[in-house]
Amino acid sequence: MTADYQKHFPVMLNEVLAALQPEDGGVYVDATFGNGGYSEAILQQADCRVIALDRDATVLPRAEELKQQYGSRFEFRPGCFGDFDTLVTEDIDGAVFDIGVSSMQLDQADRGFSFAKDAPLDMRMSQTGTSAADLVNTLPEEELAAILFNYGEEKKSRQIARKIVEARKIKPVTSTLELANIIYQVVKRSFNQTIDPATRSFQALRIAVNDELEELRNGLDKASRRLKKGGRLVVVDFHSLEDRIVKTFFKNNCDKAVHVSRYRPQETTGNALFGFASKAIVPSAQEIGLNNRSRSAKLRYAIKN
Predict the structure, then answer these.
(1) 43 exposed, middle or buried (CB, 10 Å; 0-12, 13-18, 19+)?
(2) 295 and 202 part of one domain
(3) For residue range 122-139, what is the model confidence (pLDDT) as tens digits?
C-alpha cells in the first residue's frame, strides 16, 4: 500500500468480514470501493473474486494497484451502485456497502466536501453533473430550505436558506468557507461544540448533489436480487437517514417469525427475500479511539433465503 493510502482506514473491517464470511471460490462485490480497504481484506481472507464499483474516477490508480497484485481475482467496474443490476450481471455470494462520503474525498480539499479548508463548492462524487454551487445559487429559497431540513435535519433550515439567497444577490456563493460563514450567521459557533454548525447543511447539500438516498434504495434492492441463496448483504452507514433506509429495507424484506408452540423451535414463513437480518452493530471503543470517523458508524447485514 502506498503512502497516499495509509491514513485511510476501512471502518469496522473485522465486523464486515465476520458478517460477509468470504469463502474460497466465492464472488463478492465491494459496492463502494473508495480506497479499496474492504476489497483487499476480502481478497486476503479467501481465495475468491472481488468486483469493485465506484463512480469516483480518482480511485482508478488504487484499483489498478489491486489489479496488478491480484490479477483476475479482482475487477473494477466504474459506476454508481444504484445501477448495481447493470454493473453486476452475475450471481454473487455477498456484497458490502460503505455509505456516504469517503475519507479520501473529505481529505481532497478541492472536492468541496469539507469546510475545513477553503475550496470550490463542488461535492460531486462522480465529478460530473450539478454541483453544490449550482444548487446554492439557483434553487428557490423554499427548495433550499427543504433540502437542508430533509437531508440535514437542520432546524434552522429556513433562516439559512434566506441568508443564502440574500448573499447570492450580491455575488454567487462559490466556495466552502463562503457558505460556512453564511451558515454561522444563523447558527452561531461556540468553543464547546463537538459538531460544527455547518455540518448538517453540508451533509444535506452533498446528499442532494449525489442523490445518495435514492441511490442507496436502488443499490440495496438490486444487490439483493443478485445474491445467491445464503448470500450476504452487508451495509455500513453513518447517519440516521441512511440507517433508517437500511433498517426498513431489511425489516420489510425479512422473514417473520411464526408462533407454533412454546415447545417447538421458532419457525418462519420462508417466503421473504431474507431469512435473517441483524440488529445494528456498532464499532468498538478501541476502533473509535484509533479512527474517529467510525464513531457514528452502524453495521447491519442480512442473509438471503
Answers:
(1) buried
(2) no
(3) 888 887 889 999 999 999
Please list, in sequence order, all residues whose beta carbon lies within 8 angstroms of the beta carbon of residue 248, skipping any fewer than 6 positions away. Answer: none
Q: Which residues pair with 281 in a beta bridge?
A: 299
**The three three-digit cell numbers of residue 129, written as one number:** 453533473
Q: How far is it, in rounded angstroms, from Cα 263 to Cα 95? A: 37
Domain end marker among 156, 188, 210: 210
The Cα–Cα gap between 92 and 105 comes to 28
* Domain end residue (candidates: 156, 186, 210): 210
Phi, psi (degrees; rounded to nearest 5) at 233: -115, 120
Give me the pLDDT at residue 94, please: 98
H or E stretch covering 303: strand 298-304
Tell me the per-residue pLDDT of 98-128, one tens digit each, with 9 for 90 and over: 997 655 545 555 555 566 778 899 888 887 8
Give the whole-number percent of the chain exceeding pLDDT 70: 87
Q: How many CA atoms lie within 13 A of 160 on its CB side?
A: 31
H or E segment and range at residue 28:
strand 27-30
CB atoms within 10 A of CB 147: 21
* Distances, alpha carbon 111 to alpha carbons 21, 53, 257, 292, in Å: 35, 20, 47, 21
- Asked if the model's pLDDT at residue 5 lies above 60, the reply is no
Residues 252 and 279 reside in one and the same domain: yes
- Are the CB atoms for 222 and 85 separated by under 8 Å? yes
- Number of domains making up the chain: 2
Question: pTM of the predicted model, to two decimals?
Answer: 0.87
Range of the domain at 177: 105-210
Higher pLDDT, 110 or 94: 94
How distant, in Å, are the alpha carbons of 70, 78, 178, 234 from that of 51?
12, 10, 40, 15
CATH classification of the domain holding 274? 3.40.50.150
Q: What is the pLDDT of residues 47-76, one digit of tens each?
A: 999 999 999 888 999 999 999 999 999 999
